[in-house]
Amino acid sequence: MSKRSFSHPQPQTKGQFKAAQDVLRHRAHPQSSIDYRFQPDAGLRRPPQKETPVSVGNWILTFIIASIPVGGLLSLLFWACSSKVEPSKRNFARSYLLLVAIVTALVGIAIIITVFIFKVNLLELVARMLYYALLGVQTQY
Known about the structure:
The protein is an all-alpha fold. Helices cover about 60% and strands about 0% of the residues. It has a domain at about 55-115.
């Protein structure tokens, strides 16, 4: 059986020695492109950047905008999906949208249960509500 022999390059200068190390490293792990040389900050994480806190006035404006029926919903969707918004405002928008979805689902379920259990004509109920709301007539029970 013959033994395979590798010819190792003989370095002459410091630059050639580094090149020889790179060749040997590539022979040992040809699929790896990791540089194993000493790196002073290797393994150390950078400290997270501090976010600027959202001011009280900005929060008040956020609540006012969120209470607008259609525009508030659109702005909440923008804040929830945008990466340019502060993380606290983004999380607030996501939680507010989740709460709106849960409440809408519960109200929808309550309306469906009311219609099917009590046999209420939903269109007649809405028409009566609009009639009394628009005319300002108070019902007497």
